[in-house]
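Reading a protein record of the kind used here takes little practice once its layout is understood. Each number in the token line that follows is a code from a learned vocabulary of backbone shapes. One such record is shown here in full, so that the layout can be seen directly:
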Amino acid sequence: MDVETNTGGPPKYVMLSENGGDGGVRPPPYRRNIPRYHSTAQPYKKKGNCCLKCICCFYCFLFIVIFGLSAVAFYIYAIYQPKMPTYKVDHIGIGAFDLQADFSLMTEFDVTVRAENPNERISIFYGPLSSIAITYSDSTLCTGKIPTFQQGHQNVTFMDIVLKGKSEFGSGLQEALMDNRKTGKIPLLIKVRAPVIIELGSLPLKQITFLLNCSLVIDSLTPRKKVEILSTKYDAGIEW
């Protein structure tokens, strides 16, 4: 008969006595069952992924729009090669320059403006809402309008403009003007505002406004006498 011997490990069987004794072995301590709560809210991760996708889509759309506009602008520039038109005061004449006793001034100027369109495929339409004014020491002497016309490709046009006006001219301005007339150097400022429509081939674009300020010095204000332009300075701009 074989007898099992203990080799030093824990016993395979534990005998409990009928009297409630445990033979030196105690039951494990009582363990509390901790309640578990399950959240019903959606994980934050899904919301974050949705927002991230929307942001990525927006930036992709914005990139496509910017790229498309840049491509169109590059195509137009490469094909049409737009250049700014140039303007020059070619001639100025005095039709009337009369100082009145009530310190008012009656003036009439004849101005010839040279307009050059250097573009090969772009024409310029000059609209009816243009204006041109001549000022002296911030006082407007006379006003007029640029004629309405269509300027073709690579074209030079001379515009003859008549400006008339009646303005208040105080004694201080009269004295300054008389001093300038004696020295033979009268500073004037010509302001041009010309709304135009640019046409690429046969396609009209949005109306823009050419702005031109011409500071010039002339030698005389005597009516019906040849006037010499001593110096000129031009400042041009565009109003979108």
Q: What stands out?
A: The mean pLDDT is 85. Helices lie at 44-80, 171-183. The first helix runs from residue 44 to 80.
